């Protein structure tokens, strides 16, 4: 949100300036802001261009302290000249005042503001807010009953299965032995999840009773840098991200850290090269012994009988088809929570997006597919291109900007239906990669996305010319007509391609239905055809 840029004298700390422009940072800016404000970062505010460059190149702040990632605030160009800025959460509630000390542009050309931030109001926005205490609150709580024991932090955005739980218990025991009395170290699980999206947080929390008695959990949102892919079941972290997590863990009072990123995480040497403020442990690998029926350190399992944990793809496939995760792999309560978060595809929200030229057959196929989905027993919402243009986007033109906005609106509605477990079928032209990718991202926050490219050649669409639009476009009566005088970017990420040339509409519908059944989103046979013993 951006308002007019007005300047004035410096405000008193913590006092809201009613005349300052307001701005809601994006997800990473907001994540950084909260970590600055709650004291998890030892930084007064957002970095200048020089500071960010030193961090980027040398992994340290200009004063020499190691620091792994630039902490920067991206702003729209119109805010680049402001001196004071009110930073708000996405709902517009003020969080902090920023005294801008520098406006700079990074190598990416984007505008950024540097400067100290002052807390205006403690954040109330964000999922699981009651589990987000500040580092000083956590440290104060521990000081009430000081145990003198090491505090082992586990930073994770993925559920803790048997392998990780064994590793945590073993490392907590080992730290207790090293530190004297043989009593286990305390454990602090830092659950990393988005501010808007619970992600896997509740599945991580489900493991609470399976961890040592003095284990506590906090939730926080770490910024997601470009080198961290965001899988549904948890991301793959880079060394600098683990190092940033180590800084946050140290602020919470941790003396050691274990990052439970699964097999593909960075090795500890690369993390320690970032000079984190605590020891990042390199846990012993564990395997399941299929003969003994136990998880054991790798060294104690015969290679022939050692089983690794399931991969993310295997977990996803089990959940997609509604199968229970095996008990050798994960505790029942973690499996049950995962099944709740990722229900079987027959119960999971789904958006099917048809894209293709005008006249390619999107509406015809989409209508048939909707009928089929209904027959299979699921309810479905159809967002046809023409209907959306009438009901949601009647003021929009066919400029690139308006087409993008149109598809974003479709994506928003579809993602809401998906969030609640419904099926949406959308059939706009959606000519641009970027817009389609945006819809995919919006939908995949909550469920599944299936892209169908109706790849009927332009000549065929033009010959059909059902609405006479191509003739008008050729005559220059319709400007910026897709395929004639406006681009159509062929998707490279379609889950299914249907070229309807020389194909009966029923056959096109059947292909899409087969793909949806094969993927597990619909039962193999719908009620009616199962009763009649007939095929679709
Ligand atoms: N300039 C131009 N380019 C393309 N299409 C045009 C244009 N002007 C009007 N129409 C009619 O609008 C329908 C496409 O609207 P969409 O909302 O699906 O397009 S977009 O996704 O926003 O690009 C499209 O409907 P379909 O034939 O169902 O695709 C056309 O009937
Ligand atoms: N295999 C097919 N699939 C879909 N439509 C087809 C097919 N074969 C011919 N058609 C015809 O092509 C036209 C496609 O129009 P429509 O579905 O409105 O396309 P769009 O929504 O992409 O503009 C319809 O008249 C339809 O009967």
TrEMBL record:
GO terms for biological process: hydrogen sulfide biosynthetic process; sulfate assimilation via adenylyl sulfate reduction; sulfate assimilation, phosphoadenylyl sulfate reduction by phosphoadenylyl-sulfate reductase (thioredoxin). Pathway: Sulfur metabolism; hydrogen sulfide biosynthesis; sulfite from sulfate: step 2/3. Transmembrane segments: none annotated. Its EC number is 2.7.1.25. InterPro entries: APS, APS_kinase_dom, ATP-Sase_PUA-like_dom, P-loop_NTPase, PUA-like_sf, Sulf_AdTrans/APS_kinase. Catalyzes the synthesis of activated sulfate. Residues 30-105 form the ATP-sulfurylase PUA-like domain. Belongs to the APS kinase family. Residues 1-23 are annotated as: Disordered. One of its GO terms (molecular function) is sulfate adenylyltransferase (ATP) activity. It catalyses: adenosine 5'-phosphosulfate + ATP = 3'-phosphoadenylyl sulfate + ADP + H(+). Gene3D superfamilies: P-loop containing nucleotide triphosphate hydrolases, Sulfate adenylyltransferase. Residues 348-499 form the APS kinase domain. It comes from the Bacteria. Keywords: ATP-binding, Kinase, Nucleotide-binding, Phosphoprotein, Transferase. Signal peptide: none annotated. This is Adenylyl-sulfate kinase. The gene is cysC. ATP binds at residues 356-363. NCBIfam families: apsK. One of its GO terms (cellular component) is cytoplasm.
């Amino acid at each position: 949100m951006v308002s007019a840029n007005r300047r004035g004298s410096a405000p008193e700390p913590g006092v809201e300036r009613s005349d300052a422009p307001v701005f809601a940072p994006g997800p990473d800016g907001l994540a950084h802001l909260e970590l600055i404000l709650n004291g998890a970062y030892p930084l007064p505010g957002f970095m200048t261009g020089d500071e960010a460059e030193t961090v980027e190149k040398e992994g340290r702040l200009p004063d020499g302290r190691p620091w792994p990632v630039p902490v920067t605030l991206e702003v729209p160009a119109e805010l680049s000249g402001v001196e004071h800025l009110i930073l708000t959460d996405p709902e517009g509630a003020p969080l902090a005042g920023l005294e801008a000390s520098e406006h700079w542009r990074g190598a990416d050309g984007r505008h950024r503001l540097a400067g100290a931030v002052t807390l205006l109001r403690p954040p109330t926005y964000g999922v699981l807010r009651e589990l987000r205490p500040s580092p000083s609150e956590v440290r104060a709580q521990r000081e009430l009953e000081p145990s003198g024991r090491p505090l082992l932090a586990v930073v994770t955005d993925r559920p803790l299965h048997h392998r990780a739980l064994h590793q945590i218990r073993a490392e907590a025991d080992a730290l207790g032995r090293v530190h004297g009395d043989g009593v286990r170290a305390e454990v602090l699980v830092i659950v990393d999840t988005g501010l808007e999206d619970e992600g896997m947080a509740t599945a991580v929390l489900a493991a609470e009773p399976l961890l040592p008695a003095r284990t506590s959990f906090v939730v926080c949102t770490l910024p997601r840098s470009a080198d961290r892919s965001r899988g549904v079941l948890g991301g793959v972290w880079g060394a600098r991200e683990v190092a940033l997590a180590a800084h946050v863990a140290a602020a919470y009072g941790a003396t050691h850290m274990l990052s439970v990123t699964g097999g593909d995480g960075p090795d500890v040497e690369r993390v320690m090269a970032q000079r984190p403020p605590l020891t990042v442990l390199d846990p012993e690998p564990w395997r399941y012994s299929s003969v003994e029926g136990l998880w054991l350190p790798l060294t104690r399992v015969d290679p022939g009988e050692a089983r690794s944990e399931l991969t993310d793809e295997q977990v996803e496939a089990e959940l997609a088809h509604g199968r229970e995760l095996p008990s050798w792999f994960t505790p029942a309560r973690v499996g049950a929570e995962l099944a709740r978060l990722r229900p079987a595809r027959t119960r999971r929200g789904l958006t099917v997006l048809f894209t293709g030229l005008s006249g390619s057959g999107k509406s015809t196929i989409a209508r048939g597919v909707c009928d089929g989905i209904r027959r299979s027993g699921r309810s479905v919402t159809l967002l046809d291109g023409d209907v959306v243009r009438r009901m949601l986007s009647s003021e929009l033109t066919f400029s690139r900007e308006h087409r993008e906005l149109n598809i974003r609106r479709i994506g928003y509605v579809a993602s809401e239906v998906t969030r609640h477990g419904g099926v949406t079928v959308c059939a706009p032209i959606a000519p641009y990669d970027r817009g389609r990718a945006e819809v995919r991202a919006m939908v995949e926050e909550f469920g599944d996305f299936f892209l169908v490219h109706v790849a009927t050649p332009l000549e065929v669409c033009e010959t059909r010319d059902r609405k006479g639009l191509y003739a008008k476009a050729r005559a220059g009566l319709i400007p910026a007509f897709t395929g004639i005088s406006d681009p159509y970017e062929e998707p490279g990420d379609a889950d299914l391609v249907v070229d309807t040339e020389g194909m009966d509409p029923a056959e096109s519908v059947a292909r899409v239905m087969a793909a949806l059944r094969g993927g597990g989103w619909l039962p193999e046979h719908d009620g009616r055809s199962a009763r009649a013993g007939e095929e679709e």
